[in-house]
Amino acid sequence: MDTLLHFVNLVLHIDKFLGDFIHVYGAWVYAVLFLIVFCETGLVVLPFLPGDSLLFIGGAFCATGEMNIGLLIVLLLVAAISGNTVNYMIGRAIGPRVFNSHIPFLERFLDRSALQKTHNFYEKHGGKTIVLARFIPVVRTFAPFVAGASEMTVSRFQLFNFVGALFWVLLLTLLGYFFGNIPFIRQYLNVIVLVGIGAAVVPVVLGALWKMMRKKAPNADSR
């Protein structure tokens, strides 16, 4: 519980955390931002790390001259692309082995046909999934792992991995650069962060619920 509260406090006060870190450690802030973005996108066990808000606030500090916008964008691009690549490779290495382990206990809970369906989905819609997932917390951490586990084509994955990272990093850092220091935004940054997360997550949840309801409807009618 304490860990969760600490995380929420970090996300909601990321501007204060980042500002204090810059004043104490200076250029080491680039390494920290690189590491956070890399871990959030590259390690499936760390989806809770701040991503969107970190990029936005980083851009805001660049506007004040405390950081360099060009260097920040390049480093974040490398972190986002390499993080997704590592996540994809982990999924590609682990996924098929788990589904083909022939361990009775696992075979009860794993459906190989579901893995094949996921593979077909990613081959058909994986491009836009990888790009759009960049803007949805938690989903962006799991999307490359699932793409790897379902054996999405490497070249196709890397193409959309680069495109998604480019849009994500440029959009959020430049929004922070041009608008992050406006007094109103600074004052209500916590609310904006929460609204932004909600705006990204709610449509996905509603879409999933709608699909579930549509699948159940024919079954109900057949009775």
TrEMBL record:
InterPro entries attached to this UniProt entry: DedA (IPR058127), DedA-like (IPR032818), VTT_dom (IPR032816)
Main location: membrane
Lipid bilayer topology: Multi-pass membrane protein
Residues in VTT domain copies: 49-177
Subcellular location as annotated: Cell membrane
Keywords: Cell membrane, Membrane, Transmembrane, Transmembrane helix
Membrane-traversing stretches: 27-49, 69-90, 159-179, 191-210
Keyword Transcription: no
One Gene Ontology cellular component: plasma membrane
Pfam family, one: VTT_dom
Membership in a protein family: Belongs to the DedA family.
Name by which UniProt lists this protein: VTT domain-containing protein
Species the sequence originates in: Paraburkholderia dioscoreae
Lineage per the UniProt record: Bacteria, Pseudomonadati, Pseudomonadota, Betaproteobacteria, Burkholderiales
